[in-house]
Amino acid sequence: MNWTSSKILAWSAERLMKAGVGSPRLEAEILLAHAIQARRQDIYLEPDRPITRMELGEHQSLLRRRMCREPISHILGRREFWSLEFLINSAVLAPRPETEVLVEKFLETCRRDSPARARILDIGTGSGNIAVAVARELPDCRVTAADVSPSALAVAEKNSKTHGVYDRIRFLQSDLFESLDPGERFDYILSNPPYIASEDLKVLMPDVKDYEPRLALDGGKDGLELYKRLVPEAARRLENGGSLVLEIGMDQALDVGCLIERDGNYDEPRVFQDYAGRDRVVLARKKNHG
Ligand code: GLN
């Protein structure tokens, strides 16, 4: 049989659908485009393009991986965030679109406060998506990107080079604030910490639980462990009037809000929703006095 783009596409979409993949047609297109080194739209412009044996072999190996539910961003080695392409591997969480809400809300706040040369700390930087997006948006700011995992930091460094902000980000191997100088303070602390309760990890989609780093997902017994450490430690590291901006799980706004209130060092926290209308970001300003 002579394979053409359109035939392979139909056949692949069917296989992906049977394997339980969410958007089989779209993903078949993405994989085929990758295998034949073309753009997705080229597949439609040239539906009868013959596919060589080698391309077919390459496509089938990608397809096989996706049918085993390896995430598509791992297979391609990249994922888009903030309209930038990020290198991804098994050491990091693939950036999620909802994390863009954190970046957006932070930028709104920072632009309103307009501190001179803002000092920003990104805790648990992973692929560096938040740190890189922020460094690109605010040419004057100084960013520290911390992660406990050296292999995640290596990915973040590469991404910062690709996007031209390597010399404006300091990379730090650190368990939360541990490796920072004792006296160091920031205007903003951002974090998308692991927030899934250990018990719930088992029921996640295979794409996530079998392939993404547990370290980036596991929020301990109740999913709140990292917030319990972050909220009080961040209060000690923020300048008065500085802000803590956290991504949260959709059912954690009350619990995280409560941790912030109880801490006593912050003004009343604000909660923002993602594009699906779920609570996703909490922003708390450190009190200006006291
Ligand atoms: N900062 C990265 C992100 O927002 C990684 C987060 C994590 O590993 N929990 O996607």
Question: Topology, please?
Answer:
Layout: H1 5-18, H2 24-35, H3 40-45, H4 53-67, H5 72-76, E1 78-81, E2 84-87, H6 99-113, E3 119-123, H7 129-137, E4 142-147, H8 150-162, E5 169-173, E6 186-191, H9 198-201, H10 206-209, H11 225-237, E7 238-247, H12 253-263, E8 270-273, E9 279-285
Parallel strand pairs: 3-4, 3-6, 4-5, 6-7
Antiparallel strand pairs: 1-2, 7-9, 8-9
Helix pairs in contact: 1-2, 2-4, 6-7, 11-12
Glutamine binds next to helix 7.
Report on the structure:
With 290 residues, the chain is an alpha/beta fold. The protein has 2 domains: 64 residues; 196 residues, Rossmann fold (3-Layer(aba) Sandwich). It is built from 12 helices and 9 strands. The strands form 2 sheets. It has a 7-stranded mixed β-sheet with strand order 5-4-3-6-7-9-8, sandwiched between helices. A two-stranded antiparallel ribbon has the order 1-2. The longest helix is centred in the N-terminal third of the chain and has 15 residues. It is elongated. The model has no long low-confidence stretch (mean pLDDT 95). Glutamine binds next to helix 7.
